[in-house]
Design a protein that fits this description.
Strand content: 15-25%
Largest sheet: 7 strands, parallel
Shape: globular
CATH superfamily of the domain at 231-419: P-loop containing nucleotide triphosphate hydrolases
Strand order of the largest sheet: 10-11-9-12-13-8-14
Helix content: 25-40%
Radius of gyration: 30 Å
Structural class: alpha/beta
Bound molecules: adenosine-5'-diphosphate, magnesium ion
Number of strands: 20
CATH topology of the domain at 231-419: Rossmann fold
Length: 661
């Protein structure tokens, strides 16, 4: 329903839109993050630092001092039922002598209070639980309360569907209407718990139903093209590789080859930690595909990586295969030649970025699409890709592993192959947490590594996150130029460079023409420079755990043990605890699991692209039991669709609108 109906001021509508509230439903489904309890407390129970509420009158002495920059301090005596207090409050210049107010204050001991906020309502009318919302943009807590109040008038009209009665009764859930009521305006914490159980289940059931509806339309039972090839040829070629595949690698390769040879259309996720050796598996799968006289496409998230992949494939695969890579700095002529040859079936493997999705890229007979770091490709892009050939097989590779049980419920329609144990040449990377956002404490160590001809990455948070000042590439570059000996050569790489410039910088770093590389997360995926084994991450608390794990996967790729220094000046306990997970664990699964619990899958897998929604209230890790129950119930719904018409209809509609965005 349109926001207009709430009869808001023009300014408020603007504020709402900026904050991402476009419909009344958006407000109703924006849940509080916590609740504050307003209650009266006898003076004898007050402890220093308690936040307390009291009602009373402002009395003399009353003193107001104006400070520069629109700030002010007001001091007054406050006569309340609990006694007479000396109050100090900042930036509340409108307070007047003799005014009667309800005050929230911090108790500083004796008769001292620091005012936090006040209003003109009687305290009696405010007792209870107050929802606290995570504020967005310019909306204040007060705005949120008003908006939600207004939205509540339309509650009934906004609820289009409820959890089917069978399930609601089975799990003793509330009606959606009541759940929304209790979550926004609870009387007790028990009511909040009841409400959130209901809302979580509803959210998961909707997700699961949509997943299964989608599956029944799209993939399942779809026949692919059987690829006929002699597996012994693949085995023979495996022996030519410079290393022996690990048992895990052999196993996942077999799973993939089975899929290629079967009638069933492959839609497989190959997951394994950074450096676990996924590329060689993809290479062999593409080799098998070529043996069956089909072409393959390999999609990489960045151009740098696409070109690197093409080089790697050439190393791994027989010289008889023609492997080409499409990238932006090719001349029009070169590009045209590749496209023509592709159409004429003269190219076996084409590597590229999103550019491969363009319409002008036509394969003669594409049989396999491999996407590296699959979460960076949208659902829609995947769809366009599958139209590149006739029922192509899909292999998606991801280095952000998710636990199998979770993957099974989240992806439903994807088979999963996992490399759990790594080949022995994979180095560990020692990780250190440095409680200062500068290299001072580790300066000597870094210098020593540089003298030993190691190369060092200096990673800064990307430029967009700026609610707190962070170290930018420019600042770090300047600081290093000042701080490090003059002969140390420093390169700079960030997202604002063109693809060509980026490639050039990386090539120089690769050729050891730079000793240091100051960079952003553009190097996060895939960059493979074995001579660089030290990494310094500034403002490391600003990164996600999986992201940091990916980043540090850039070092320790050669024969030297990697070293990663996480710098932070954050005092936040939770942040530090999170960073410590990386110090203590090298296990991508464990890290991903912690990250999932903390940030939810949307953040990690790249929101909409992943096909996994970011849940509003449910958490896929901590609420896993509910998720599994919802999956089972989703299946029950699909088995007896006629009993759940309304619910299914509702989910189908949501699916339709989802495809649009
Ligand atoms: P991923 O893509 O999974 O992060 P890569 O495929 O880039 O990992 O492999 C990382 C490195 O490990 C590469 O240099 C690769 O040649 C090497 N490698 C892969 N498999 C093995 C193996 N079985 N034994 C030794 N080295 C391997
Ligand atoms: Mg890789």
């Amino acid at each position: 329903m349109e926001l207009k109906q709430l009869k808001l001021s023009k300014r408020m509508i603007e504020k709402c839109t900026e904050a991402g509230f476009n419909e009344i439903e958006d407000l109703l489904w924006f849940f509080p993050v916590r609740y504050e309890e307003i209650r009266q407390k006898a003076f004898s129970d007050w402890l220093v630092n308690d936040k307390i509420w009291l009602e009373g009158t402002i009395v003399d002495p009353f003193k107001q001092v104006y400070l520069p920059k629109n700030r002010s301090v007001t001091k007054f005596h406050f006569q309340s039922l609990e006694g007479l207090f000396q109050v100090t409050i900042f930036n509340r210049p409108w307070l007047k002598l003799n005014q009667h107010i309800t005050l929230q204050a911090r108790y500083d001991g004796q008769n001292q209070l620091t005012g936090l906020q006040y209003n003109a309502q009687a305290l009696m009318d405010q007792l209870g639980l107050v929802p606290i919302y995570a504020l967005r943009k310019e909306l204040t807590q007060k705005d949120m309360h008003k908006l939600v109040d207004k939205a509540f008038v339309f509650l009934d009209q906004c609820i289009k569907n409820d959890v089917p009665d069978v399930f609601r009764e089975r799990y003793r859930l509330l009606r959606l209407k009541d759940a929304l009521h209790y979550i926004h305006k609870p009387h007790t914490m028990e009511a909040v718990v009841q409400a959130s159980r209901t809302l979580k289940y509803e959210e998961f059931l909707r997700f699961q139903t949509k997943l299964q509806v989608n599956r029944s339309i799209n993939f399942s039972g779809q026949f692919g093209k059987v690829k006929v090839f002699d597996r012994r040829l693949v085995q023979t070629w495996m022996k030519q590789l410079p290393f022996e595949l690990t048992a895990d690698q052999k196993q996942v390769l077999n799973e993939i080859l089975d899929d290629l040879q079967s009638k069933h259309r492959m839609n497989r996720l190959l997951q394994g930690d950074v450096g676990s050796g996924k590329t060689v598996i993809a290479a062999l799968a593409m080799y098998a595909t070529s043996l069956a006289h089909y072409q393959s496409a390999l999609l990489a998230p960045t151009e740098i990586l696409a070109r690197q992949h093409a080089e790697t494939l050439k190393q791994y695969l027989p010289k008889t295969l023609r492997i080409e890579v499409l990238y932006s700095s090719l001349s029009t002529q070169q590009k045209r030649k590749i496209l023509t040859d592709l159409k004429n079936n003269e190219i076996d493997i084409l590597v590229g970025t999103h550019s491969l999705i363009q319409e002008e890229v036509r394969f003669a007979n594409c049989g396999l699409v491999v996407a590296d770091e699959q979460h960076r490709f949208g659902v829609k892009q995947r769809q366009s890709l599958s139209e590149k050939g006739d029922k192509v097989d899909f292999l998606l590779m991801s280095a952000t592993p998710i636990p199998r049980t979770l993957a099974a419920v989240l992806f439903n329609d994807v088979e999963i192959s996992t490399i759990t144990n790594y080949h022995s040449s994979k180095q560990n990377t020692q990780t250190f947490l440095i409680r200062e956002n500068s290299i001072k404490p580790i300066y000597d160590q870094i210098l020593k590594r540089l003298e030993e001809k190691d190369q060092v990455y200096f990673v800064c948070p990307s430029i967009e996150q700026s609610d707190r000042p962070t170290k930018s590439v420019e600042i770090i570059e300047a600081a290093l130029k000042r701080g490090l000996p003059k002969h140390i050569r420093i390169g700079v790489l960030h997202g604002r460079l063109t693809a060509e410039e980026k490639t050039r910088v990386l090539e120089c770093f690769y050729a050891q023409e730079y000793d240091c590389l100051v960079t952003t997360t553009v190097i996060e995926v895939g960059v493979n420079i074995q001579s660089a084994n030290t990494m310094v991450v500034y403002d490391s608390d600003r990164f996600g755990l999986s992201q940091l794990h990916q980043l540090r996967g850039r070092v320790g790729r050669g024969s030297v043990e990697g070293r990663c220094f996480l710098l932070t000046d954050s005092e936040d306990e939770l942040s530090l605890e999170r960073l410590n997970v990386l110090v203590e664990s090298q296990d991508g699964f464990e890290i991903a699991n912690k990250d999932l619990a903390l940030r939810g899958p949307g953040e990690i897998f790249g929101l909409k692209q992943s096909g996994i929604p970011s849940f509003l209230i449910a958490n896929v890790v901590t609420d896993q039991a509910i998720l599994m129950t919802a999956q089972k119930d989703g299946q029950e719904i699909m088995k007896n669709p006629s009993q759940y018409n309304a619910w299914l209809e509702h989910c189908r509609k949501e699916l339709e609108t989802q495809v649009v965005d």
